Amino acid sequence: METQSKLDANFDAFKKLLPELLEKHSGKFAVMHECKLQEVFDTPADAYKYAQKLYKKGDYAIQEIGAKPINLGFYNHALLVHPV
Questions:
Q1: Separation of alpha carbons 69 and 17, rounded Å
Q2: Where are the alpha helices (DSSP H) in the chain?
Q3: Residue 29's beta-bridge partner residues?
Q4: Are strands 29-33 and 60-64 parallel, antiparallel or unpaired?
Q5: Is 70 within the bounds of a domain?
Q6: Residue 14: which domain range?
Q7: Residue 53 to residues 25, 48, 69, 71: CA-CA distances in angstroms?
Q8: Gap between the Cα atoms of 25 and 66, Å rounded
């Protein structure tokens, strides 16, 4: 499956999980991989660090958990992450 298709599939899976995620994790960041929720983080930087250690670029998506889901594609490209 090509990268955009993987991102779209992860986003569709995220939208299905959104009602439950909003109840427990509103304002946090979800890591989606192979259409499954892998983990939830307080910051996008933490989500990115987790995902980049486990998955190839393009095989995961990071989504902010909010009332209006937005497909951010490669969310990690919008981050400035400093090594810890």
A1: 11
A2: 3-25, 44-54
A3: 41, 64
A4: antiparallel
A5: yes
A6: 3-78
A7: 23, 9, 25, 22
A8: 9
pTM of the model: 0.78
User: 39: which strand partners?
Assistant: 31
Does any domain span residue 51? yes
Per the domain annotation, does 28 fall within a domain? Answer: yes
- Report whether 28 contacts 41 (CB < 8 A): yes
Structure tokens, 42: 């307080």
User: pLDDT 10s digit of each residue in the chain, 84 long?
Assistant: 687 788 889 889 998 999 899 899 999 999 999 999 999 999 999 999 999 999 988 889 899 998 675 655 554 333 334 444
| Bridge partners (DSSP) listed for residue 36 | 33
Residue 83 lies in a domain: no
Tokens 């190839």 locate to 56
Structural domains counted in the chain: 1
Measure the CA–CA gap between 35 and 31, rounded to whole angstroms.
10
